[in-house]
Amino acid sequence: MPAEGRDEGLLLRSNPPRREKTMMKEASGKDGESATKSAVLNPRREAEKVRILAETVVLVALSGALYLFRFFLLPQGGSVTLGSMVPVFLLALRRGPRVGIVGGVAFGLVALVEDLYSGVEVIFYPAQVILDYPLAFGVLGLAGFFRRMPILGVGIGVAARFCSHFVSGVLFFASFAPAGVSPFVYSAVYNGGFLLPEFAITAALMFVLVRVKALELYL
Description:
single chain; about 220 residues; mainly alpha; Arp2/3 complex 21 kDa subunit ARPC3; two-stranded antiparallel ribbon; 7 helices
């Protein structure tokens, strides 16, 4: 090989083209930029998780407090309260169904403890307790699927709660039905008797909260 050819080859190997250098610099710059962004986003995500957790605890506690204010209490459980479902609906509509369902389940467990403390006989079978408390209150979180139609979401949540109580009534409380009355009719009347006024109170309060834009505060 001529000397000139060898010199040119050595020069190309020792000094890569400028375009390749530029591309390498751009790639390293992008990597550094993405690493910086992820470092900034992680603390923000953690702060958001803490905020959602704190909001869940506060709203579940508020639901538990409102659950203690009852207009009347039925003998086998079920009561009309001072809008105790409102904070859970507020949580679901603000944070979505997943957080709402978790908050609803927590509220159900709180309601179970409060009912037991009030002296109401509410535990008959393990499956019945699940239907009447964690599941019945957890489904209130389904309202989170209807964030653009809050009142419809409230109606869906209450209807789902009614279904859970209804199934529990048919399966476990048929013996309480008066003679000649179908367990289906008895369960529907019993559970509808307290859930209809409860829905009316909840829907009215939620309507006010929607009007004052409470769903958008501190989001």
